[in-house]
Write a structure and sequence with these properties.
Layout: H1 20-31, H2 36-46, E1 53-57, H3 63-70, E2 74-79, H4 82-92, E3 108-111, E4 123-132, H5 138-149, E5 153-164, H6 173-184, H7 201-208, E6 212-220, E7 223-225, H8 228-236, H9 242-247, H10 250-261, E8 271-273, E9 276-283
Parallel strand pairs: 1-2, 1-4, 2-3, 4-5
Antiparallel strand pairs: 5-9, 6-9, 7-8
Helix pairs in contact: 1-8, 2-3, 5-7, 6-10, 8-10
């Protein structure tokens, strides 16, 4: 599966601060698929299949779970975003309203706090597919999430951490700097914002959570959009622009993001940005 150039015509009110419902739909319909090459590369390397019991941290609207389940894995997903999780339930569960507890087999979706299904063996794979390397606190958030999740895995289980690649190999870095600049205008200079991925970010998280690195890889994940409107809405759905929207307003952020995207607009109107993401395979 590769990123798809998609066109959607549902527009949101640009005066809204952060419309979480529309943002979740934009994530599911436009942006989430951009990381599909990362999911698939990890699953191929780890030979994810029917014997895999996977816990996905920050599962979003469920695409990574869907791909793993298609390979036969027993999957559990967790996300703090209620709108994204609702979309994941629609995708993965035949009866979302009845999914109050762990099924005998098949997907289990949790809101905010990881848990081990009663009577089931521990997880043998934990994935954190939300890439770190964009802000000062994303590594801290990942450390906290792993602190709750790793005890639910068996000894010698696999944990996969992911991060943005070097800024010089990620065309989207220039757009993300717009979010950092707009947000920083509303606070003291140097109070956070875009950092750019550092060489040992993932290893540092592994060390702090007691994980043992056991290999790594890089995956090309180009961001491709059918038009400028889809590109802006897809990027804003990542939640990386929320602080900028609160600091200014949505229309201002949309305008500046579109300007930053202009060098990546091709003659046919599509927008294409090559990116590289890194993953680190660890054991518990």
């Amino acid at each position: 599966m590769t990123p798809t150039l998609v066109r959607h015509h549902t527009h949101t009110d640009s005066s809204a601060s952060v419309d979480t419902g529309s943002r979740a739909r934009d994530w599911a319909e436009i942006q989430e698929r951009m990381l599909a090459p990362l999911y698939e590369a990890v699953y191929r390397r780890l030979e994810v299949g029917a014997a895999t019991r996977m816990l996905s941290l920050g599962c979003g609207s469920g695409l990574a779970l869907l791909i793993a389940a298609g390979r036969g894995a027993c999957v559990t997903g967790i996300d703090a975003d209620a709108e994204r999780l609702a979309l994941a339930r629609v995708r993965l569960l035949p009866d979302p309203e009845g999914a109050a507890g762990p099924p005998a087999a098949g997907p289990w979706l949790l809101d905010g706090v990881p848990a081990a299904p009663t009577g089931h063996e521990p997880y043998d794979l934990i994935t954190a597919f939300t890439p770190i390397g964009c802000s000062a606190d994303d590594a801290e958030e990942l450390v906290g999430a792993l602190g709750s999740a790793v005890p639910l895995a068996g000894r010698g289980s696999t944990v996969v951490l992911t991060g943005w690649g070097p800024p010089e190999r990620c065309a989207t870095a220039a757009v993300l700097r717009v979010a950092a600049r707009l947000a920083e205008d509303a606070r003291s200079p140097g109070a956070g914002g875009w950092l750019g991925a550092q060489r040992d970010d993932l290893e540092d998280v592994a060390f702090r959570t007691g994980l043992k690195p056991d290999g790594s890889g890089r995956v090309a994940c180009p961001f491709g959009y059918a038009d400028m409107d889809s590109a802006v809405r897809g990027l804003l759905s990542t939640r990386l622009f929320d602080a900028a929207i609160r600091a200014t307003d949505r229309s201002q952020v949309e305008k500046e993001v579109a300007e930053a995207l202009r060098p990546h607009r091709r003659r046919d109107g599509t927008v294409w940005m090559p990116n590289v993401f890194r993953y680190l395979v660890c054991t518990t």
